[in-house]
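Re: [help] complex structure
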Amino acid sequence: MQSFSYSKAQTVDQAAGMDGRFIGGGTTLVDLMKQGVETPKTLVDITGLPLSSVETLPDGGLKIGAMVRNSDLAHHETVKAQYAVLSEALLSGASPQLRNMATTGGNLLQRTRCPYFRDTSYTNCSKRNPGSGCAAIGGHNRMMAILGTSEDCIATHPSDMCVALTALEATIHVQGPKGDRAIAIADFYKLPGTTPNVENALEPGELITHVTLPAPRKASKQVYLKLRDRASYEFALASAAVVAETSGGHIRFVRVALGGVGTRPWRSHEAEAALMGKPATATHFRAAAEAALKEAKPQSENGFKVELAKRCIVRALTTATA
Amino acid sequence: MASTTASPHGIIGRPVPRIDGPLKTTGTAQYAADFHLPGMVFAVPVQATVAKGTIRSLDVTAAQAMPGVLEVLHHGNVERIYRAVPNDPNATVSETRPPLEDNRIYYWGQYVALVVAETLEQATAAAAAVKAEYSAETPQVSGELEPFAGTWHTVSARGKVDEAFDAAAVKVDQTYGTPVETHNPIELHATVAAWAGDTVTFYESTQGVVNHRNAMAQILGVPRENVTVITKFLGSGFGGKLFPWPHCALAAVASRRVQRPVKLVVTRTMMFSNVGHRPLTEQRFRVGASADGKLVALRQDALNHTSMVDNFDEGCGEATPYLYSVPNLTVTSALVQRNVGSPMAMRGPGAVPGLFAMESAMDELAVALKMDPVELRLKNDASIDESNGQKFSSRHLRECLETGSAKFGWSKRTPAVGSMRRDGKVLGWGMAAASWGAYRFGCSTTVELGADGKVRARCATQDVGTGLYTIFAQVLAEKTGLPFERIEVLLGDTTMPEGPLSGGSWSTATVLPAVAGAADGAIASLLQIAASTPGAKLEGADAKTLRLTEGRVHRATESAAQGVPFETVLQAARLNRVSADSTSGSAFEDPKAKGLSMHSFGAQFAEVEWEPEIARLRVSRVVTVIDAGRIINPRAGANQIKGAVVMGVGMAMLEETVYDPRNGQPINGNLADYLMATCADSPEIDVTFLDYPDYALNSYGARGIGEIGLAGVAPAIASAVYHATGVRVRKLPIRIEDLLQSEMREA
Ligand SMILES: Cc1cc2nc3c(=O)[nH]c(=O)nc-3n(C[C@H](O)[C@H](O)[C@H](O)COP(=O)(O)OP(=O)(O)OC[C@H]3O[C@@H](n4cnc5c(N)ncnc54)[C@H](O)[C@@H]3O)c2cc1C
Ligand code: SF4
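Output below.
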């Protein structure tokens, strides 16, 4: 382990200008520092910042502070009542202990569980060493992504929360040395391409201050479904977040996002297009699932994820339109 | 260690809470790594990052110069670490090749150096700074053991199995596999070694303090009496901690080198490469039966992988020769070498993977016969051990099957695949029979009655977390009538009389005769003293007419209340204590046990819920009926069985150590990626003990229960999975990949 300095930020303005690595719950960062994967010189503890509230906005939307713990967010009354998909996604992730520590900002930036990324004895990992290749291709890749992969990286984006936020079309608000900006979640995560080391749209020094959600669509139903080997404490093999509105048996509004299969939280415009205006029936659900996975590129061990993800989508749509 | 809830009357067979519970729940129980000695320093091993080859160069200069570093040991500078004498049953080691013996690498993660530093952080940092270069070769870590061209050896044979199989009316011929499973007790392996002159003390996480002492004495080249091993508590071992591993020798050698106590705690990642695992098995079963379901031929050919440096035979044929009645039988086995660390016994070695294969084959046979699988077992129940013609000391497999059927509601099962439903889910019901050997080894114990009013037992065995402290206390309470708060049980220290290794579920059966004998001896001395102490109340009484009840010495014709507290007797005689030693022998030398086949039996019934729409399968219910002799403590006993069932769910559905085929690294070596059953995966578990005493084993009729609970769980679940989904999985674990093969798309 390398030595590093530690300081605690007192105000948002102060933090946003600080040259160092932010630490929230530390459940990703400290873990990776112990593995030697992350080697920050300076840690800036941001848990004391006044970013721990969940507030309803004048337009009926929701503002979630970056320091709100995953457990608190999952159990927040408004979230449970109006953004059930978010609450369900959070509760399906990690363990109670981890959720008690994990923050909203940290969850947005959690890193992949790819075992080759986490072990620095593998020099061939383009996410750590750009341009060095990818140890996971041809290795143990059962958990890896099948959508959005490149020849340089096939790592899955691990978060459940971010899948729900994607279906809810969240906006991420940041403050940095150059000021504030708001980034739609659709523009926040980057595909690996030839630069898997660049995971998101953040500029150096930018601090996530909060996340906003649009006002809930009153007539919509929301579902998060996570499929995995064991019943708890495991990342998704495939998951689906669905927000849907039907009338007269037809789908009038739908958002579909997938987890466990993509290199980023995976919004499926293809599935949505296949569903809009169509009757809410099993046939159309299956067609949407087929559309969502059309571009899937399985590796040697994860071909099963294609069918599993399809079933996940069909079940989530069935529940959300029942 | 005290608890007020137990009253001595009828304490044997009562579900008393364990006496060490409060120490554990308050965090005051001291495990090996909890010992902090003055001047202690820390050792961290450096692991090879290749699985086969040689060390070309090892650069320790940077590490050596780092803050706090005292020493970096490697094959070029380490003193001789001796090998333990091969096949010495009292000094067994897990990996026979001593650490740092030469520059050869046999498996990924093998220790190539050891850094000793003032703090754990310094040692960890310096270990990361050791630079090793290897001449690496492609390792052999394949999970396929066939085709196998080596020699098979015969484990058991009778009749003419191949002819009988060829001629059988109904046959099953299939190959079954079980994966590498890693022992993952919550307590990591840990050694604290401290030298004083030429004697050394180990605070160890071991399932056998006596064996550990004997082996370490050989390895370190010192007399046995110069070595002390202490294990007060163990956070379990499941077999992985039976015998010393290389890190134990490293800690001791480092401590001798730096002349300071050294602590070495194996990391969770190292647990996956350096301290054993249940080996991969591949077992071909041929089972032939007559059209009405009578077995005529049973053949098992079992392969298991082993390391390059040890021949570890899993013994998959443990249960095959005696479980069923069949005239023609052959069991053979062979080993296949792999570039992996040495395997080690894991809960129910041999029987557990062997029964997965055999009971799965029996399930397939039942399907082929269109016969109920319980019926098939009952029809082929054995009345004697047909492998050797011996009578069983106590066998109630039939009753296990019948009781289990009734409790589970088996008669309501409809045999067709996917034919049962509940709450929109498909149900699968499956079952399997189980067995495990019953053993008793030698044991010595001291029991003393003290003038302080306490009774104490001492024995160099260890409580691995299963409740052995409480078993001792129950016997002492029974013998003396004292409550638990006046009983002290001292275990896990080689300066005490030698007790057994904690393995094979034999501890309870082994210690009972010795502790009972020592208690009887101490009480006899006490009564003698009571009768002969001048001026004492009972002076002149015939000692034979005296009794010890509720801690009081009294005449048999009078009540305890009319007698004298035993400590008063001792005080009157100006004695600090009376004590007695007792040594009991192994069942192998016992005329009562001679010529008998001794085993525990069980029946496992499992229910799974299957949601084909999302390929989700969960184990919802397990009914387990166990015939393991008399149960001394049903609470601790049921706890063992329930834990074993949960482990069985993991074995059936989740656990598998995966090696990267390119470099042989166990790639899922942590508790997030190596999946074990969580609480949410635990089914509803119903445990029944038949409680028939087996007096051939000891006067209490007790056998052991740690391992039998796991036997048969995985095949019962696999059978239920087939019943629900129509997918026959012959290679564990049963994965979503397998279940997606089901033709059923909706419930
Ligand atoms: C064993 C295990 C199992 C898990 N299982 C799951 C699971 O099933 N599903 C799931 O979704 N997650 C799972 N997780 C991941 C967990 O959700 C994340 O670790 C957690 O959300 C990260 O939050 P944190 O506050 O601890 O982040 P930290 O570790 O503190 O930070 C993570 C990263 O975010 C940066 N950061 C933090 N806050 C800010 C901010 N406000 N602005 C800018 N940068 C910031 C840090 O610099 C760091 O790079 C698991 C984790 C573990 C260890
Ligand atoms: S998948 Fe990505 S993170 Fe994993 S080894 Fe390949 S490049 Fe690295």
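Chain A touches chain B at residues 1, 36, 113, 115, 119, 121, 138-140, 143, 225, 227, 229-234, 237, 304, 307-308, 311-312, 314-315 (CB under 8 Å).
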